[in-house]
Amino acid sequence: MFFEYLVMDQPDYVEWVPAGRFIRVAKLVTTSFIIIVVVLLIVFVRPLDTEAFIGIGVSGAVLFFILFLLMNFRGIKIKIDSDTIRVNYGLFNNKSIRLDEIGSCKPVKASFRRFAGIGVRYGFDGSHAFTTSFGDAVEVTPVKGRVFVFSSNNPDKICEFISKE
Questions:
Q1: What is the model's pLDDT at position 149?
Q2: What DSSP string describes the chain?
Q3: In order along the chain (165 residues), what is the average pLDDT of each group of 10 residues?
């Protein structure tokens, strides 16, 4: 009985799409800058008075907040099972679409011109997107509702899988 439960919950397709090079570089630059500022405050502000401790505390809090955001949006997890496609981008951005509610699916390129950036975006054409880079993506058009675009390493395979179901 327990084994059947474990087998029943396994998705048919799983993919992890990590953040693009731009995001990784931005993460490194931002983190390095804040660490350098904190170290400079500690080294050059003598004696360490109340204002210095407040500055270090605020810098540390900002660093942890930025690191949380960057870790939260480090990639997209795509799961497809027999009746649903689920796309998760961080803790708070989750999208589920039933396969029988999908009108069409096609591979596209996520472009700056359409979404004006990467991340959780709304396109100028009214679409909703989870993108990690300006590269391969899947465009899912539901029977009714907003077009949804998400980054993928294998957009052809996902569309083939969705069409098959």
A1: 95
A2: -HHHHHHHT--SEEEEEEPPHHHHHHHHHHHHHHHHHHHHHHHHSSS--HHHHHHHHHHHHHHHHHHHHHHHTSEEEEEE-SSEEEEEETTTEEEEEEGGGEEEEEEEE--HHHHSSSEEEE-TTS-EEEESSSSEEEEEEESSS--EEEE-S-HHHHHHHHHH-
A3: 56 86 82 83 76 80 83 88 91 91 93 86 90 91 93 93 78
